[in-house]
Design brief:
Length: about 650
Amino acid sequence: MARTRGILATLAMASLAIAPLAYALPGKIVIKNLDSAGEGFNLGTPAAPVGGNPGTTIGQQRLNVFQHAADLWGAILLNADTIYVDARFDSQLCTPSSAVLGSAGPTFLGRDDPSYPFASTWYHIALAEKLAGSRLLPNGTGEISATFNSELDGTASCLGGTTWYYGFDGNEGAQIELLPVVLHELGHGLGFSTTTSGSTGNFNSGFPGVWDHFLYDSLTGRVWSNPSETAGQRVASAISGDKLSWSGAAGRYGVTHLPLMRRPKVTVNSAPVAGIDSLGQAEFGGTLTVGGVTGSVVLVIDGSGAANDGCTALTNAGAVSGNIAIVDRGSCNFNVKAQTAQAAGATGLIIVNNTTGSFTASGVDPSITIPIVTVTLGDGKALKNAIAGGLNVTLSGDAVLYAGADGSYRPLMYAPNPFQGGSSVSHFDVSTLPNALMEPAINASLSSDVDMTKHLFVDIGWLPISTPTALASFTAEDRAEGVLLQWRFADGSDVATLTLQRAPGEAGPWTALQTELFTRDGLTAALDASVEPGQAYFYRLHVVDRDGRESTWGLVTVYHSGVAAGPAALFAPSPNPSPTGTTLSYRIPRPEFVRLDIVDASGRRIRSLQEGMAEAGEHQVWWDGTAGGRSVPPGLYFATMRTSAGLRSQRIAIIR
């Protein structure tokens, strides 16, 4: 098979001069200065050294940041040959409220070399050369083209005069730190992007990119490169929210190895409020534990402006004290709202959006210790309306799900609706916490860490696989004789030792269980017979890989009743069919966690009716035929109930 290369973009370079100096980590990454004299990297404006950057002019400081980013990537890509980056500072789009900070991509693509893991597949040229073991471009020709915004140096019309921060230490304050932006854009040029159009679903010249071999479409259960996946299905996947993820084993390992924070949950313990599904959380504040914080919800009232935005001292601080505060978004920074609620004695905070969609409360404030979640405008209205009747909730972290990953530990990719050209598909989802380098927008918590990016680079071929692959499943089932634990690794060949650990709570203390393990067809099982009736237990796996590195995997919790398990049942809805709604009845033989959802005919969950612990016996839940605050259209729907005994479902017909 012959080597070929395809042009991704034609670069207009005729008016740019290449400066005589290039900065590099020998044999790794060379930064080529394409700026003309007196501009960009050659700007002679004096500047004091800052944050470990010794440059004495703005141009030199910029070049030093690029060299530092190149050194960081060069140290990670241990087997990379020399990579040339055509770099420049030019005027880019910038308004008082938004800006293009920078952009980068490969200058060429390569495919069909016998050394490439996937045939008939495009690779960014730097990765193509690495896999081929030789240069495919003339020596000195750039593999990556990068342009950064020169307007961010005090231009009044650009983000209100915001400037770049050229230090290496992450102390940018109100400025925008250049280092993580350069690391981010170099990541795209090295391979963190698809070569397929997310807006049309069409492959580049009829061939998928290596990225597409790992983009998992949970709507179809296939990756984008699968021959059965159509262009239309890729288009739908690119705007599917949390239905687009990364299936690579190393990427899934990164979810729990870093680890990501727990996905936020709001469990309503009283009042007729449907499940709260579209959640975000703050980048600062207390950790959301699996056990969570439980309390009554109190709407804050402050002394000026909008009464419920929590921007000034609260006039109902006495009512807020010892309870969970709820506050409206807007008028002041998120950390100010948190400070106000915490000063009044709140044990947790819910911030309600003032527009459509979910959001993350951004910022850095180590003084905030209470947990903070964010909810949509619609869910916030439902919660506030229920306060008068007595609203009690639990703010917690999901026992299984992580912020920025699906239930199988696959990192979520950015797939907003509508499609956002230049951002969708080729970034991590914005729900990822801690913030990741390759999210579509810069975050103040980022600096020099490439976090999960290196794990995805393992999957596409930059680095060898040398870590245990992701945990495929981990379950705990209560039985009369004890707790049955079962788990499976997608590929556990690098696991040297494994220990099953137990604790009375998420925070520990963790102890090793001395119990026999049984393995068959890759599924391992163990019975914990030392549990006591009426107690809840937490379990996890402690792994040591063949290089001696330690990590913990999974976290499951179960309540041990000490009685024999009988059949769980979800009974036929009544009335059915119905024009307005129906009553759902179910039975469980012991206290346990129950999730009761309504899904449409395509399998998409549209409403959560219950998600929490339920007592043994029979229960009834009314579904009013609505989802998202609106009546659902006529058609066929399904009620699904998930318990430790598995999944049960009943059909519901809505007629209008």
